Amino acid sequence: QVQLVESGGGLVQAGGSLTLSCAASGNIFSTNVMAWYRQAPGKQRELVASIISSGATNYADSAKGRFTISRDNAKSTVYLQMNNLKPEDTALYYCYAGRFGVGAFGSWGQGTQVTVSS
Question: d(Cα 40, Cα 4) in Å, to the nearest integer?
């Protein structure tokens, strides 16, 4: 299994920026995907951005052009740089690490709150 600890959430005004961090430990070498999800009150959890072992990234339409996912393999950390934040970005942001394909599994962090005021 993989343990994940998120940090970097907070309160920011619309148009501002935040960078979320997710530090991974445990069996991280067995993972081939890391991602950020978010869940707003009364809504389903949704994918924000993902990065696979090749470095290829994928973004939700709402995140394209504003958010950037990256990773530092030496630190076993994945980041989500969020710019031009909007009130609709307010949510609990979760880090995910897992493996697709043979031996598939997934692990979640506890979440970090992002609140964007108008």
Answer: 20
Q: What is the mean pLDDT of the chain?
A: 96
The alpha carbon dihedral of 48, 25, 8, 94 has a sign of positive
Pairing of strands 91-99, 105-108: antiparallel
Q: How far apart are CA 63 and CA 105, in angstroms?
A: 25
DSSP the chain: -EEEEEE--EEEETT--EEEEEEEEESGGG--EEEEEEE-TTS--EEEEEEETTS-EEE-TTTTTTEEEEEEGGGTEEEEEE-S--GGG-EEEEEEEEE-STT-EEEE---EEEEEE-
Residues 64-107: tens digit of each pLDDT? 999 999 999 899 999 999 999 999 999 999 999 999 888 889 99
Is 83 within 8 Å of 10 (Cβ atoms)? no
